[in-house]
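Hey L., structure's done. Input below.
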Amino acid sequence: MSGADDSKLTRRQLVSGAGALVAGGALGVAGCGSASPARPIPHVELGSQPSGLPARQHAWSATLPVDEFGNAVVPKYDRLLFFDVDGKPGLASVGLLEAALRTLERRFRWGPDGLLFTAGWGPDYFEHVLGVISPIPKAKALSDFELPTVDRYHLCLHLACDNERALSDIEGALVHGESLPGADGPLDISPALRWRETRTGFVGAGLPHAHQNVSGIPPGDPVPGGSPLFMGFKSGFAKNQATEDDVTIPTGPFADGTTQHVSYMRLRLDSWYQNLSYPERVQRMHSPQTTPDDVAHFTDNPPTHAAQLNQAIRADGVIGHAQTSAQARRNNRPVIIRRDFDTIDGGQAGLHFVAVQRTIEDFVRTRTAMNAASAQLQNPEIGSTVNNGINEFIFVLKRANYILPARAQRAFPLLPGREQTLR
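Output:
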């Protein structure tokens, strides 16, 4: 295995090349050139909302089924739709977006067997569209071995459910004005919002195994049949996730909202599966104190062995992903909720990492802890990526931050006069 400096150079070359592939059209990208001519925004009826919807857009947990140990079973399919505001938004733009989202709420039950979704707004929406100070910072590189593109999209719609066809149909209706079976109201938001990119993916036992014939995964079907993610391990145990109360903004204009970080990562799993034995992969994913037998008996709260991190650095010369990430906990509880999913966008094995947390700083703290930068000073066997959790196998291509307002504020938040449209 190469030393840390060689690994960094190779990593930068690989990320730069992969970034060029994405920019060249490996993902669904539209409207990357000059802005389209302004279109008149039609007046639409808002329509009603079903009763009982939570005030929080991110309130998904209560709708999810649980396994025998109480762990949430997340939606099988996800889709991220990215938009820019087309022209100067007015009250008609508010009505158009809100009416479309209410149509979805009437058409689909709130839950994974129907539809879950959030509308998140990026810093450029606040700064360049509204001309106000953004409530969230722009994303940035979070380690010295990544070179991500920072997305500048205004709006991110995150859609999730157990029906992949439904997500495709919803995208067609929102972006292209296609009909959506069973919908009883307007859905086309293209007069107000210009679609820029779509990212797709999946999570759940059997799905990664069925999609592993892509670049980044070696031949021979190494992804286990029961694994919910490409790397062969389960995440999202009940007690290694923050609660929705933990991540909710308590006061201010975005009360009952939260913040969202969205990353696109390429996975390089050839060396993960070909160069490491299963016990070694356990060490990298969890900790050197964790054994394969331990993993087989995890229920709802796998131990992180966070207190043994210094021992792992000095005596074992290898540290685990869960072990380092746990350094960012508050009162021994995680500060983020992971809503990530695998992808084969562009024919590449990847991960769309979606996390919600009260502040973006909570995400930054968690990601910084995962870097374990001080470990390199204590043991030269550990580099920024070498013998350092799963850092060697993930390549961050894109990063972005968004704020998810409360449901009542989700359509063009802070736009002057918007409340008049929603009465």
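The radius of gyration is 22 Å. Residues 1-27, 29-36 have pLDDT under 50 and may be disordered.

-- N.
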